[in-house]
C-alpha cells in the first residue's frame, strides 16, 4: 500500500469519527454546562444530578443520530475500505 493512500484513508477515517461524535459531544457539553449552572445557582451539590441528565441527553441524541452514524460508517467502508482490501 502506498503511503499517500494510507494517510488519505487515515485522514478520512479521523474526519468521519469527528463528524459522528460531534452531536453527542455537543449535547454532553450543553447538558453539563446547564446542570453546572443550575447547581451553582441553587447551591445543590448532588453527584447524581450531574450524571443522570447528561446520560439521558446523550442516549436521546445517540438514538436520534444512529441512522446518520450507520450510513456514514457503511458508506466509508463500502466505498473506501472494502475496495482496498480487495485490491481494487
TrEMBL record:
Belongs to the FliQ/MopD/SpaQ family. Pfam families: Bac_export_3 (PF01313). This is Flagellar biosynthetic protein FliQ. The keyword Iron does not apply. It is found in: Cell membrane. It comes from Aquimixticola soesokkakensis. InterPro entries: Bac_export_3. It is a multi-pass membrane protein. The chain crosses the membrane at residues 12-38, 50-69.
Amino acid at each position: 500500500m502506498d503511503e499517500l493512500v494510507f494517510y488519505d484513508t487515515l485522514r478520512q477515517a479521523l474526519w468521519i469519527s469527528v463528524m459522528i461524535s460531534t452531536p453527542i459531544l455537543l449535547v454532553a457539553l450543553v447538558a453539563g454546562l446547564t446542570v453546572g449552572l443550575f447547581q451553582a445557582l441553587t447551591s445543590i451539590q448532588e453527584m447524581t444530578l450531574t450524571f443522570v441528565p447528561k446520560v439521558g441527553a446523550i442516549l436521546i441524541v445517540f438514538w436520534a443520530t444512529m441512522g446518520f452514524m450507520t450510513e456514514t460508517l457503511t458508506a466509508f467502508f463500502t466505498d473506501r475500505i472494502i475496495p482496498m482490501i480487495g485490491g481494487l
